[in-house]
Amino acid sequence: MPATILATREALIAAGARSRATMLEWREGSAYRAAGAAFADCGDSPEHAADCAERLLADPDWAGALLAPLVRALAADPLFEPALKFHRDALRVGAVLFDCPTASIAASVTGAAAMATLPPPATIVFTGRLAVTRTIRAGGASLRRWIAAPMHAQFGSTGAGRCTPDDVRPLHDDAVHRTDGRTQAQLIVDAADDVVTLVATIRSGAAPLMREYDIATGVLLRVADADDRPSRKGMLLHFLRVAGRADAQDRFEAETRTDDFHLRWTAMREWLALDAARAMPRLAEMAAADPSDEVRRAAVRMLPVVQGRLADARCPA
Question: What is the rounded CA–CA span in Å between residue 297 and residue 287?
Answer without folding.
Answer: 7
